[in-house]
Design brief:
This protein is mainly beta. About 5% of the residues lie in helices and about 50% in strands. The protein is elongated, with a radius of gyration of 29 Å.
Length: about 500
């Protein structure tokens, strides 16, 4: 074996990019002219460029520098592919019923370059509209992943904004929440190596700050019928203090008008203007964004709402992936070939007691506590049809993910079986129901609702489809434990459909 002499990097050439700007490619490289040649940095740079999903192929080769034999020039040759996508879909779920979506994304956007169809700048642009019977959303997002890169001396800071209109009538038949607003956000990775002992294990954590401004309108309809005969607090107090002719206190009252609105739901009705700063810490060591086989994702988020009242909440979640084994490693297109993965995850959240309904915790649907309709895990109003949300939540889950069929890197089918355990808790709710006696008078029954300490659990399975950049997940689950606030479960409640776009 004869070792060659060490050499430095000379000129770095970028070729093959017809739409993407040179600077977008160069800032992903981990080597620069004058650096000592390092194969691992070359390979890392190639992988980072491929992960951008702008290119079909990336080749990095070296060639002798004709003017200095101690250096070698580097040629980065890329083959671009189309990055913009338009997606149109129709779906059905127990929460939204029938809905349609249209999504336009361009992860290689350039707002200045109209001559090149606004592409090539490495910015992320997305506009999505979802229109259903019970819910309508319009969201526009823009992100510059290298904001003021030169002015910040190479520091990677992602900055962007969101503008949205969301109208949600899906929580309950008598509850409507409409939000109009936007946010400004910025994020940067921070190395934790400076922390003694544990810093090297923490690695890099992304810190994101956002400031949202929203106008929120909560609409509440009558949820109580005449059979409920719920009386107000003042009426109940008069009833309890009634004294008969003999001087005895009796629990009876004269007929009065009964309440048509749930008192806890009615209290949320109105319009709100909220300014809410949010801090999010994210540690992501997963080996892939979609269908990872190892690593973990940890998120810690804190939010403060400032408006007619000041409230706060904090939420933490962790997902850990374990690769159990792999079948037919050398035959990726065989049926059932691929990695079998165990996913363990959990989440916990606390909110102040005065948190309004639109920022409380809700569970159910396609993310947490599958097998239940979204929002229908935890406290409800008296009718049981309208979720109230909670100020404390807890959930743990175990999921076994296995391959079914793979056509290529962009198209595959996976399955999963899982169990979710958790609940949402709020304060104790007390109602007074008038019961009519034979003599025409009324007595009042005190009814209390409180699910604190109770738990829900469900089991089910999922079908996971990977279709290019749009993963589709169909879940079906059934509850095995339900708390005292849960109504009768319907078969359609266990069906959820989740889609996502990653860029």
């Amino acid at each position: 074996m004869d070792e060659s002499s060490l050499f430095d990097i000379g000129i770095v050439y970028i070729t093959g990019n017809e739409r993407t700007k040179d600077v977008v490619i160069r800032r992903e490289l981990s080597f620069f002219p004058g650096d000592r040649y390092n194969y691992y940095r070359i390979d890392m740079s190639r992988q980072r460029l491929m992960n951008m999903d702008y290119f079909e192929k990336v080749d990095i080769v070296e060639a002798p520098n004709p003017q200095d034999h101690s250096k070698k020039d580097i040629y980065v040759d890329v083959k671009e592919k189309l990055t913009g996508q338009v997606g149109v879909g129709v779906g059905f779920s127990s929460q939204d019923m029938l809905f349609g979506t249209i999504t336009i994304t361009q992860p290689n956007f350039d707002w200045k370059n109209y001559k090149n169809w606004f592409t090539g700048g490495g910015q992320h642009f997305r506009i999505k509209g979802e229109f259903g019977i019970h819910r309508q959303d319009v969201i526009l997002s823009f992100t510059e992943p290298y904001f003021l890169h030169e002015q910040l001396k190479g520091r990677k800071v992602a900055a962007g904004f969101d503008v949205y209109w969301k109208n949600n009538n899906a929580l309950g038949p008598d509850l409507r929440i409409m939000r109009i607003g936007g946010d400004l956000r910025a994020a940067t990775p921070i190395s934790m190596a400076w922390i003694p002992t544990v810093g090297k294990y923490l690695g890099v954590i992304k810190v994101e700050g956002a400031l949202a401004g929203e106008y929120i309108r909560v609409g509440v309809d009558k949820s109580l019928d005449y059979d409920d005969t719920i009386v107000g607090e003042d009426t109940a107090w008069i009833m309890r203090r009634h004294v008969n002719k003999r001087g005895r206190v009796q629990k009876r009252m004269v007929p009065l008008e009964f309440e048509r609105y749930d008192k806890y739901l009615k209290k949320e009705k109105g319009s709100y203007a909220v300014l809410a700063p949010t801090i999010t810490l994210t540690r992501d060591t997963r080996d892939a964004l979609f269908l990872p086989t190892s690593g973990a994702l940890t998120i810690l988020k804190g939010r403060v709402g400032v408006g007619s009242t000041i409230y706060g909440l904090v939420e933490a979640s962790h997902s850990q992936y374990f690769k159990l084994f792999e079948l037919f490693e050398r035959k990726p297109n065989y049926v059932f070939s691929g990695s079998h993965v165990l996913l363990l995850r959990g989440s916990i959240g606390f909110a102040s007691h005065n948190t309004p309904i639109f920022d409380r915790f809700f569970m159910g649907g396609s993310e947490e506590m599958r097998g239940f309709r979204y929002g229908f895990v935890g406290p409800k109003d008296y009718s049981g049809d309208n979720p109230m949300g909670g100020n404390f939540k807890f959930m743990v889950s175990a999921e076994y993910i296995f391959p079914i069929w793979r056509y290529n890197e962009n198209i595959s089918v996976h399955g999963a079986v899982w169990t979710d355990i958790g609940n949402v808790w709020w304060k104790e709710r007390t109602y007074y129901k008038a019961l009519r006696c034979m003599n025409g008078q009324y007595v009042v029954e005190r009814k209390k609702f409180d699910n604190f300490g109770e738990i829900n659990a469900s089991v089910g399975g999922s079908l996971i489809l990977q279709l290019w950049r749009m993963p589709i997940r169909v879940n079906y689950g059934v509850p095995i434990f339900k708390d005292s606030d849960s109504k009768d479960w319907k078969p359609l409640d266990g069906l959820t459909l989740g889609t996502g776009f990653s860029f």
